[in-house]
Amino acid sequence: MSKVVKVSLRHILSDDFNKYWEMVSIRTFSHKVGYILSNPVIIFHVMYRLAYVAKMNRWSMIIRMFIHIFYRFLCVIYGNQISLRAFIGGGFHMVHWGGIVINGGSRIGRNARMMHNVTLGMKNDGAPFIGDNAYFGTGAVLLGGIKLGDNVRIGANAVVDKDFPSNVTIAGIPARIVKVGSNSGVSNSTYKK
User: Fold this and answer.
1) Is residue 1 part of a domain?
2) In a domain, 32, yes or no
């Protein structure tokens, strides 16, 4: 879990932005630029990715320091705490900003979709490991060294403190399986308007 994962900023941002464009159906370049500059979620998201890549790829100390200070400033402004030690795969999509806390030991697969006030926290020296195509409902809390499979949907305000397999929807306090099946995960067409 503590393995350093080097990533290309261009590739990971390309995956992330493709997910944003897919969700909001923006096609023209001018609209994309306007959306990026006016959306606090994307501004924070880009700065998180930049700070993560700078840290993992060991950019020059002065550049890393400047990026890290600006990233921490945005954490305070936007109310998010995403550790630069956490790994989040490409295609990550934060729907709303604010209240997102991700512990440094956490690992999140590709194409995750996260609402606001989600916490991935440490418990008994372990942090969550989440598969690909996960959906995190508003206020979801995931604690400890749990493992969730691919295509898992976590309901609003669910408290998850045990492992769950792939292709399930979980909800409740404590979380339990409420739906089983391959359509329970997040797909590209699930959230299009």
Assistant:
1) no
2) yes
Residue 68: left (phi > 0), alpha (psi -120 to 50), or beta?
alpha
The pTM is what?
A: 0.80
Helix (H) or strand (E) holding 148: strand 147-148
Q: Does 109 reside within a domain?
A: yes
- Residue 19 near residue 93, CB atoms below 8 Å: yes
pLDDT for residue 140 is more than 90: yes
Q: What percent of the chain has pLDDT over 70?
A: 90
- What is the rounded distance in angstroms from the CA atom of residue 104 to the CA atom of residue 112? 17
The answer as to whether 2 is a domain residue is: no
| CATH code, domain carrying 179 | 2.160.10.10
- Segments forming the whole domain that contains residue 42: 9-183
Whether the pLDDT of residue 190 is over 70: the answer is no
For the chain, first and last CA: distance in Å?
Answer: 37
Instruction: Look at the chain and report how many structural domains it folds into.
Output: 1
Around Cβ 165, how many Cβ atoms within 10 Å? 14
Token pair in block for residue 67: 């990026």
